[in-house]
Specification:
alpha+beta; 4 helices; single chain; four-stranded antiparallel sheet
């Protein structure tokens, strides 16, 4: 009986410690925005700019990369304005709907943040 109480006490302390660690390392909205900006920047450079025409000595590719870099403050603002955060104390769910204009495709992303990490679990082109 006493051994069971010791195991229960240790289990309770471990679970409480895990809960405190999760709550303290739950990523903030600002951390998500920085993560999303980095992910989008890499995607644009690797998938959009990389496919730019090599005509004109790579001019279009260089300009695309430059545009991605110089436009990052505006993109970060767009991410901030289109993201909804659901804070569950121990973790957060982020939903972002990116749409620049009606003639370009829009994207829906869902991510979970836990232990100072953010994981995208859904990405849809709409």
């Amino acid at each position: 009986m006493k051994g069971l109480q010791v195991v229960q006490t240790i289990g309770t302390v471990v679970l409480a410690g895990l809960g405190v660690a999760m709550a303290m390392t739950n990523p903030s909205q600002a951390e998500y925005e920085e993560f999303a900006l980095q992910q989008l920047t890499v995607y644009l450079k690797d998938n959009v700019c990389a496919k730019a025409s090599e005509d004109f000595g790579g001019f279009l590719k260089r300009q695309c990369n430059l545009l991605v870099e110089t436009g990052s403050p505006q993109v970060k603002q767009l991410i901030a304005e289109t993201t909804e955060r659901h804070n569950f104390i121990f973790f957060s769910i982020y939903r972002t709907d990116l749409s620049v204009s009606s003639f370009l495709p829009s994207y829906h992303f869902e991510s979970v943040g836990v232990f100072k990490n953010i994981y995208i679990y859904q990405a849809q082109k709409q």
